[in-house]
Amino acid sequence: MTRAALLQMTSGIDPAANAATLVEAVAQARAGGAAMLFTPEMSGLLDGDRDRARPHYRSENEDRVLEAVREAAAKHGIWVHLGSLAVLRDDGKLANRAFVIDDRGAIRARYDKMHLFDVDLPTGESWRESNSYTAGEGPVVVETPLGGLGLAICYDLRFPDLFRTLSDAGATILAVPAAFTRPTGAAHWHVLLRARAIEAAAFVLAAAQTGDHEDGRATYGHSLAIDPWGEVLLDMGAPAGLGFVEIDPARVADVRARVPVLRHRRAIPEATAA
User: Fold this and answer.
1) Exposure of 193 by Cβ count < 10 A (0-12 exposed, 13-18 middle, 19+ buried)?
2) CB under 8 Å to 218, separation ≥6 — which residues?
3) What is the reported pTM?
């Protein structure tokens, strides 16, 4: 068994305050016996006002939140999956980028969100992530103390082909950091995450944003840990805070032996019209 920690947070419009929350969570996760901490999407800054947020955007090499988390990981000797940061690219647009940081503070992997959230909801909420962000170009799997970790971010959850690719590439754990809206969270969060776990016969760890944010948005919370059989091991509900879960790598082998879905996968040709 290896212990993981999930941080459920209410990120705001001040990167320094968010960095302080993250650094404290790193220390608490290690004190609680976790080998790895998982944080939500947009851990460093959550601000829908682009003009107000723009002065805070930094390149990866200059991002103070990333620097603070790397230093904390090294200080406390713990791996961190930093769910995502808004990172300034050379072309002036942003990447919604996840980082896997080892217990020496080194970056082991990066993943840029591939599917951008451009939707109009019945509640009147409208989101156009592609106005500011550039989509990532490919999936990422990285070895961690918990096993092979496949990386995804929030809206990626709705695209099962990504998770098939990750499990085919050796992922036994799937990370899905998120900032789900309350309407979509209530309707789809649990069922989609459980489906991805069952389809891949893999653990899913989904650290989420929660509560009422300084920029006026409201997020769903309910950070989840799900086992390869689809059983919910941890549901953090609405409050911000830290949760812990035990990961048993043998559970993956057990489930994949009972229902060998990965071995039974076949390439599906294009459908023909009847």
Assistant:
1) buried
2) 181, 182, 211, 212
3) 0.95
Q: How far is CA 125 from the centre of its chain?
A: 22
pLDDT-wise least confident of 123-127, 158-162, 229-233: 123-127
Q: Nearest-CA neighbor of 166 among 191, 142, 198, 134?
A: 142
Q: Which two tokens stand for residue 141?
A: 């799997």
Q: What is the pLDDT of residues 101-139, one digit of tens each?
A: 999 999 999 999 999 876 666 666 666 676 788 999 999
H or E element: which one contains 160? helix 160-168
Question: Are the C-beta atoms of residues 110 and 122 closer than 8 Å to each other?
Answer: no
SS3 (DSSP) at 270: coil
Cβ neighbours around 39 below 10 Å, total? 34
Tokens 């009147």 identify what position? 124
Q: Which residues are known to be catalytic?
A: 41, 113, 154
- The phi, psi pair for 53, rounded to 5°, reads -80, -30
95: left (phi over 0), alpha (psi -120 to 50) or beta: beta
Torsion sign, CA atoms 80, 172, 96, 17? negative
pLDDT, tens digit, 9 for 90 and up, residues 13-25: 999 999 999 999 9
**Per-residue exposure over 231-267, b if at least 16 CB sit within 10 Å of its own CB, e if not:** eebbebeeebebbebebeeebbeebbeeeeeeeeeee
For 68, residues 6+ apart whose C-beta sits below 8 A from its C-beta are 19, 22, 23
SS3 157: helix
